[in-house]
Fold:
Amino acid sequence: MNNILRAIVFLLVLTKALLGSEAKSISSVFPSASVFTTATTDTTSNNAVDETRNRFPEILKDAKLLMSEVIISDFNKDTLEVAFLLSKIFELLIEADQIGEMNLEDKEEFGRFNRTFTDLYTHNLVTVQNINAPVMAEKVWADISEAIEIEMGETKFTVVDDRDGHIPLVRTKQVDQYINYFQTKGRKQFQIWLDRYVKYKDLILPILKEHEMPEELMYLAMIESGLNPKAYSKAKASGMWQFIYSTGKTYGLNRDWYRDERRDPVKATHAACKYLKDLYTLFDNWYLTLAAYNCGEGRVLRASKLHQTYDFWQMHSLPRETRNYIPYFLSAAIIARTPEAYGFKVPKNIKPFRYETIALEKSADIAVLARVAGLKPNVLREYNPELRQSATPTEAGYQLKLPVENKNGFIAAWNAIPEEERFAPQFVVHRVRYGESLWTISKKYNVSIHDLAAVNKIRNRNKVRVGQKLNVPLKGGRVWGNGDNGGPPGYSKRVYRVKRGDTLGQIAENFGTRASKIRRWNNLKYGSHLIHVGQKLVIWVK
Structure:
């Protein structure tokens, strides 16, 4: 009932705001808060715009409409829709902030909406509070309650740590503002980051040492992703170190149907070390290196040339996000070095991320692997966050990570399982017909052209020949069940190879099940070419 009342109140307030009610109707419901600020990004319009026209009223109207949709989606507990709509509002606020000089009325209206929006999504959205790690680091980065603006050229320092071989840690007015934020509004989230720090430090710190990189760089992963291997930003950056696809590929992180190595904490950390080493070679300054990691080396080089300096604190032409990025990093590093001094608990019962690897000769079903290892599937996925499907890659030699204590028992149990039960079909075979293209085939099976081409190693996406057999990946991996073993609870898996003359009805009768279930378990569609000789079907039996 409280949720219903809350939703009604919010909807009434927003309706009044959208209809142009008096400003006090909003401020009377929402408590005062500091103006919302977020990272500056380049925003351009697809259409030509009259630069003399004041676009602020349009932007604010769109933002209010989106906020009403946020409330409705939150009431319906649609977490993904809420996250999507919030990102759109963030973009509109950024655009509004970049308009330039506002008149007094626009400034007041902008401030009222900022306060309303900040209070709404910080305190009153149930779905946002329940969102786990993937978006929370980015949320915190955008959730700073005060407008933290670097006073370039006037910054006063208090040196905290300036040892050789380390990134200098200093305190400024802006750093202190971020520290205060983490001690108050951001306390809960920073404590989660500290927990993950304990979990992953024995994994990451040795890699940093191997590359002769400062140990403080681990705090860079902390502010980028909250040390969450599966973090994914609205800029399509992925993993602990938030690599975009192109940069990740440059530094050896591959993405295909089965895996996204940007999410592999080991490989991604090695790649980040190489990338940061290249940036440091270019700038010979750690603050500029970190700034380039945030906004690109081109912007930092242009700012350095413009201001005729290599002092980060003098480059006031850098984007606001980057100007705030270094104080943000410094605050996290200072707290994490001595968390007790800032009122945080040092986690003591966090299990470190330690693992052993097993080389698999073929693609294997994750549910079966988990059962053999004595783990839940979600635990196995936690140790192998790079996996995108319900099976390991098809090529031989994939290094499956397992908890140290589970390796020995796994090997014996795995070898005892019949081979036909280890592996699950991840593809359906499609024979190209006259008039078909890669695009039409991808639409038919609801998979991307990229994935279809990658699985079949097709370089020229415009050329497929009639009669060519294509392996079409099953969308989303396993679709046949939801039990801990990958199928319906209480069922065991059988893999049947289709023989000449077989029909689904006949196969279903032989296994004591229904043809409709076999279709669902194997993602088959109705049609004349439903199954073919040699095709492997997964069937679940009691």
Notes: Residues 1-52, 132-136, 143-153, 476-485 have pLDDT under 50 and may be disordered. The chain has four domains: 2-43+52-131, 158-342, 355-419, 427-541. Strands lie at 158-161, 169-171, 355-360, 398-403, 427-431, 469-473, 492-497, 536-541. The CA atoms of residues 261 and 267 lie 7 Å apart.
